Amino acid sequence: MENAWITARIARKAVEAEDIVTLDLVHAEGQALPRFEAGSHIDLELPGGRVRQYSLCNAPRETHRYQLGVLLDPASRGGSRSVHQDLAEGATVRISAPRNHFPLVPARHSILLAGGIGVTPLLSMAESLSQAGADFELHCCSRSVARTAFLPRLRGSAFADRVQLHFDDGDAVQKLDAPAVLDRPAPGTHLYVCGPKGFMDFVLGTARALGWAEANLHCEHFAGAAQDRQDDGSFEVRIASTGRVIRVAKDESVVAALAAQGVDIPISCEQGVCGTCITRVLEGEPEHRDLYFSDAEKAKNDQFTPCCSRARSAFLVLDL
Ligand code: FES
Asked: The domain that contains 40 carries what CATH number?
């Protein structure tokens, strides 16, 4: 499905912390924006047509703006650099309606654990939980005060007493003690984690070792995991509707191989994060390389993300 783009205006662009800017986006024609739930993200089209996903960090009750927090990533493939350098206050950009792959679930207690700029969706969750009078705690880990986004907002919020800040360069006593924070897995307690991959692996690994149920663990990825492509081989895909067979070379994606033959699949992130390219698989076994599907969904092998995933079998039959 093609994106139904919304034209938005950058009403405000501000330096939030070292290497972090916030953008406030409003409808270009002054209309209300589509409602969103905590944990949602939008696609943002950058100059040159690249599309990147960013979490919304404002309160979900707001419809007059979407707020994004964007870290300048030194390993940027051009997305965060373009946000920082090319997007100016007052400019118009195209955005998608919000989508949510990281929703809050009803819980007796929610633990929100943020690593760096991963605080963005969790901030929106904290706003939502606070508004609902729900029980939660928010832990924000970052390298230093200077690199911590949203500090004044966190300190001045209605939920300031539920926020704990942890700085890498601070006293040992204030550092995140993950085993202590996670030491009581309970059916009614849910954990939400967002941040760099190493941070999320550490938090989720700690939770699993302490006996947390998978159903109570929720995480959000925004950068595709690095893949070792050395052993990639070629394979074939068959288009179910026409019987046409297309070879995917070892160094090209399924999406690229199909596009070269005039079969277009909509894409957005091109790294297995957004789910835009999901395609049903009728036969064969995909090699899932996305961060979108759960392990249970991957095990069914009935759909895959052709922007980055490949095949374990010699061919795949696609429902196209
Ligand atoms: Fe985003 Fe494939 S384009 S998952």
From this structure: 2.40.30.10
Å from CA of 176 to ligand 1 middle = 33
The gap from C-alpha 231 to its chain's centroid, in whole angstroms, comes to: 27
Per residue in 205-235, pLDDT (tens digit) is: 999 999 999 999 999 876 544 455 666 789 9
Please give the number of the atom of ligand 1 that sits closest to the Cα of 272. Answer: 4
Q: Which tokens sit at 181? A: 């924070």
The Å distance, Cα 165 to ligand 1 centre, comes to 33
- Flag whether 72 is in a domain: yes
| Three-state secondary-structure class, residue 51 | strand
Cα 181 to middle of ligand 1, angstroms: 34
Q: How many CB atoms lie within 10 A of CB 215?
A: 9
Residues 292 and 270 in one domain: yes
- Please state the three-class secondary structure of 11-45 as a single string: EEEEEEECCEEEEEEEECCCCCCCCCCCCCEEEEE
Residue range 160-199, pLDDT digits in tens: 999 999 998 888 888 899 999 999 899 999 999 998 878 9
In a domain, 1, yes or no: no
The number of folded domains in the chain is 3
Dihedral pair phi/psi, residue 120, rounded to 5°: -55, -55
